[in-house]
Write a structure and sequence with these properties.
Structural class: alpha+beta
Strand order of the largest sheet: 4-5-7-6
CATH class of the largest domain: Mainly Beta
Shape: rod-shaped
CATH topology of the largest domain: Rieske Iron-sulfur Protein
CATH architecture of the largest domain: 3-layer Sandwich
Radius of gyration: 42 Å
Number of domains: 2
Largest sheet: 4 strands, antiparallel
Distance between the termini: 37 Å
CATH superfamily of the largest domain: Rieske [2Fe-2S] iron-sulphur domain
Length: 274
C-alpha cells in the first residue's frame, strides 16, 4: 500500500469513528436529560405565564353564615406556584454546547491528522527511496549494460531513482559547466528523467542517440546536454559517488546547469524519434 493510499484510508477511518462517537454521545446525553427537559418546560410555563390571584377578602364582603348561625371565614387565596429559576445552560443549552464542542474537537482532530499525513507524504526521505541515496548496482555491470556491441549506447535506467545512467567523457569535463560538480564518477553521470521545461518524462531515442521530450519537443544529447526546444537548460542530474565498486545516486542532491554551449556528444546520430 502506498503512502497516499494509507493516508486516505486513515483519514476515512478517523472521520467515521468521530461521527459514530458524536452521535453515540449525543444520544446518551439526550436520554439522560429527558426528565430535566420536562421540568424545564414546566418551569418555563410557570415563569412566563404567572396567573394573577384574587387578594384576600375585604371588609365589605359579606360573611358566609352556616346553618348554625356561625359565620364562616371566607376562603383564602390559593398558594402561589413555586417558580424554579434556571440558568441558561440548565434551560436547554447544555446539549447544544456539547454537540458544538464535540464537533469542533472531531474536526480539529481530523485537520491535525490530515496535516500530519500530508507532511509525511511531502517530506523528503533522508535514506532509501527517492529523495535519499540509492544503490544503482556495480559500476562494471552498469557499463556492460550501457555499451552495445554495435558501438551505440542504451542508458541504464534506475527506476527507484528515476534516473538514466549514461557515459560521460571525463577528459572533456573541464570545458563544460559540469566542472567542479559531483555529477560524474568513473565515466558515468546520472540524469533525472524529467524534462526541465514542464516536467514530462523524457524517453530515450535509440536511433538518434538522445533524449527527446514528446510533450513540447525539447531535445538533449546522450549526455543530457541541451540541443533544441523550449527547455531552459540541460537535463538535471544527481550527485554521484562510488562506494566499494557500487554506484550510489543521491536523489536528494539535484544539480542543474545552463544550456550547454560546448557539446561533449554529437547529436543527432541518426533519425529522430520526434
Amino acid at each position: 500500500m502506498s503512502i497516499s493510499q494509507a493516508a486516505a484510508l486513515g483519514i476515512a477511518i478517523v472521520a467515521l469513528l468521530s461521527t459514530v462517537a458524536i452521535f453515540a454521545l449525543a444520544w446518551r446525553r439526550e436520554k439522560g436529560s429527558a426528565t430535566v427537559g420536562t421540568l424545564d418546560k414546566v418551569a418555563r410555563t410557570a415563569r412566563v405565564r404567572r396567573p394573577a390571584f384574587v387578594s384576600s377578602a375585604t371588609a365589605d364582603e359579606e360573611q358566609v353564615v352556616d346553618e348554625a348561625g356561625v359565620a364562616e371565614e371566607p376562603p383564602g387565596p390559593p398558594p402561589a406556584p413555586k417558580v424554579i429559576e434556571l440558568t441558561e445552560a440548565e434551560f436547554g443549552e447544555t446539549r447544544r454546547q456539547f454537540l458544538n464542542r464535540a464537533t469542533g474537537v472531531s474536526f480539529g482532530a481530523f485537520l491535525a491528522f490530515f496535516g500530519i499525513t500530508s507532511l509525511a507524504f511531502l517530506w523528503p526521505r533522508l535514506s532509501g527511496g527517492f529523495g535519499g541515496k540509492i544503490d544503482a548496482g556495480t559500476v562494471s555491470d552498469i557499463k556492460d549494460a550501457i555499451f552495445q556491441p554495435d558501438g551505440s549506447i542504451e542508458p541504464f535506467y534506475v527506476a527507484e531513482a528515476k534516473t538514466y545512467v549514461v557515459p560521460f567523457d571525463e577528459s572533456l569535463i573541464g570545458e563544460t559547466d559540469f566542472d567542479g560538480l559531483d555529477v560524474v564518477v568513473e565515466g558515468l553521470t546520472g540524469l533525472w528523467q524529467k524534462c526541465v521545461h514542464l516536467g514530462c518524462r523524457v524517453p530515450w531515442c535509440s536511433s538518434s542517440q538522445g533524449f527527446e521530450c514528446p510533450c513540447h519537443g525539447s531535445k538533449y544529447n546522450a549526455a543530457g546536454e541541451y540541443d533544441s526546444g523550449p527547455a531552459p537548460r540541460n537535463l538535471d542530474r544527481f550527485a554521484l559517488e562510488v562506494v566499494d565498486g557500487r554506484l550510489i545516486i543521491n536523489t536528494g542532491s539535484v544539480r542543474d546547469t545552463p544550456r550547454a554551449t560546448v557539446k561533449t556528444v554529437p547529436y543527432p546520430q541518426g533519425v529522430n524519434c520526434l
